[in-house]
Design a protein that fits this description.
The complex is a heterodimer of chains A (121) and B (399). Helix content of chain A is 69%, strand content 0%. Chain A is mainly α and 121 residues long. The longest helix of chain A is centred in the middle third of the chain and has 34 residues. Chain B has 399 residues and is α/β, with parallel strands linked by helices. The chains are: A mainly alpha (121), B alpha/beta (399).
């Protein structure tokens, strides 16, 4: 807390006024998705921090925490890191991509049906 | 193949009152920029696929006709599991952006307050009115899930709402507004220089300026003009004034005022009255009143210009209207949907601008394209956040 006593950690996460849309129509799914997405973000942060440490060590041979805090990638490094994050997002969102592709696919029989069909053909 | 990726948060310009991000806080914004780009770009088209392949066919089967408006499409799409999950992801992304921006800002609130105070104290270019009430349309919900909206204060005299707002544009636009989040204002400067080469407005007025990010480039481009920016939120004005001073826009005065009552300005006081992404925050009754009042303070021969996302005209497909409406129902933009369905030309006509004096201009963000990408359009557009606008404007007849 700072001098005036603002509990900034709690205040950072406070709710916005206005009823939250019940998008998934499932209280537990909503809560869990919020946790999963926050964790997904934190893994991206750790990956980026590790990348920073690697790059600093590669160029300087040693580092301080201040080096990490003030690191700004050059254009090539920024591209490589953004690509890493893009690929990471695509990996965790695989289910969404595949469900999207499935909507466009021709109607498919279930694997149960296919098992019977294969047995009999 | 060079992939389409956002620039790093470290490319954002840090003016003297900008909240300093730590390494991990910048990385959190980088993740959100990538996530938003993925949701709107890589899989945003999934919403249309869901609509075309199953939602519309099911609607036709049930009703024997097509949807007649965007609301029927929304009701039907809200029954689709893929769209619902996409919406849930996007809502979470908006909430995570707010938490990160507030964490950055509030953990350094004392240092930021001290810096802002240095730029504000003793200057007559910031005029606050503690007696001014918030208009009801600003207080029914916290706009775009920003806790406290533009006017909330963590303590008396607070400016953190402005600082948080400034820090997070990058995440939701993937950098498309540029290093100083002023791609809209820069675009206006470029537009007016082509439209009226050599024009020197004596006075310019910006309504609903928030932190002044769009009016600062105009004030800098017209250093001999007297520029006034008004808003009802003291928190954003305190920050915006300090920010403008830090960027050298000393001809820019910030005033806490409701645009419905600008009686302290005489008729015809300003040569240019401007709003940027403001009208969509106004209620149905306040909007025409504000346009009327803006018309009153505009000088003969002057320019009125409103930058917004495109209006829902009759020739805009209903599906596009529906997807552009997402923020209205999922991101606390309660005035967005009705405002975008308004006939702005009619509102302007009723305020005294005959149709032949009106125009519509397409305005694209002007930023350093070496670093900051252009907003995608078409299917990959992040509707409501694109760094491209329609300018709805009119030149007032000479006296």
């Amino acid at each position: 807390m700072n001098d005036e006593g603002i509990d900034w950690i709690t205040r950072a996460g406070t709710r916005a006024k206005g009823k939250r849309p019940d998008t998934l129509n499932d209280y537990n799914a909503e809560r869990t998705l919020s946790i999963v997405m926050a964790l997904a973000g934190e893994i991206a942060v750790v990956k980026e921090r590790l990348d920073t440490v690697e790059r600093l060590l590669e160029t300087k041979g040693s580092l301080t925490r201040a080096d990490i805090e003030t690191y700004a990638p050059d254009r090539d490094a920024a591209y490589e890191r953004a690509l890493m994050t893009k690929e990471y997002v695509a990996r965790i969102m695989r289910g969404m991509q595949q469900e999207m592709e499935a909507m466009e696919a021709a109607p498919e029989p279930s694997l149960d049906e296919l098992n019977i069909r294969m047995r009999d053909s | 193949m060079k992939q389409d990726v956002p620039p790093p948060y470290t490319a954002v310009a840090r003016h003297a009152v900008f909240p300093t991000p730590g390494h991990d806080e910048a990385a959190r914004y980088n993740f959100l920029a990538a996530l938003n780009k993925y949701l709107s770009g890589s899989i945003g088209a999934g919403n249309k696929i869901a609509y075309d392949t199953r939602v519309l066919p099911a609607f036709r089967a049930e009703y024997g006709r097509d949807p007649v408006d965007r609301f029927e499409i929304r009701d039907a799409m809200n029954a689709d599991p893929w769209h619902r999950y996409w919406s849930a992801l996007k809502r979470n992304s908006m909430e995570m952006r707010q938490q990160n921006g507030r964490a950055i800002t509030l953990r350094q609130i004392d240092e930021l307050s001290a810096k802002v105070r240095q730029f504000n104290e003793g200057r007559d270019t910031l005029e606050l009115d503690p007696a001014l009430p918030q208009p009801h349309y600003m207080d029914v919900a916290d706009i775009h899930c920003m806790p406290g909206s533009y006017h909330g204060e963590e303590r008396p005299g607070d400016m953190s709402a402005g600082a948080n707002y400034d820090s997070g544009f990058f995440a939701t636009t993937a950098g498309a507004l540029g290093a100083l989040t002023d791609g809209g204002g820069q675009a206006l400067v470029e537009w007016i220089r082509k439209e009226r080469p050599g024009w020197k407005p004596r006075r310019i007025l910006d309504l609903g300026c928030t932190i002044g990010h769009n009016i600062v480039p105009i004030a800098l481009a017209f250093p001999d003009s007297e520029v006034v920016a008004i808003d009802t939120g003291a928190a954003v004005l305190r920050y915006g004034h300090a920010r403008a001073q830090a960027l050298g826009a000393t001809n820019l005065r910030f005033v806490q005022m409701d645009a419905e009552d600008m009686s302290r300005f005489p008729d015809g006081h300003f040569d240019w009255v401007q709003t940027t992404m403001f009208l969509h925050e106004l209620s149905g009754k306040s909007l025409p009143r504000i346009i009327d009042e803006a018309a009153r303070v505009l000088a003969p021969g002057g320019l009125m210009l409103h930058l917004e996302q495109p209006q829902y005209s009759a020739d805009m497909p209903l599906y596009e209207q529906f997807i552009r409406d997402w923020d209205a129902f999922n991101n606390n933009e309660p005035s967005w949907s009705a405002m975008h369905a308004l006939d702005l030309k009619q509102v302007m006509a009723e305020a005294g601008f005959p149709p032949e004096s009106q125009f519509t201009a397409r305005v694209l963000a002007v930023v350093d394209r070496d670093i900051f990408p252009q907003s995608p359009d078409g299917a990959a557009e992040d509707h409501g956040r694109a760094a491209a606008w329609n300018g709805y404007g009119a030149w007032k007849a000479d006296a």
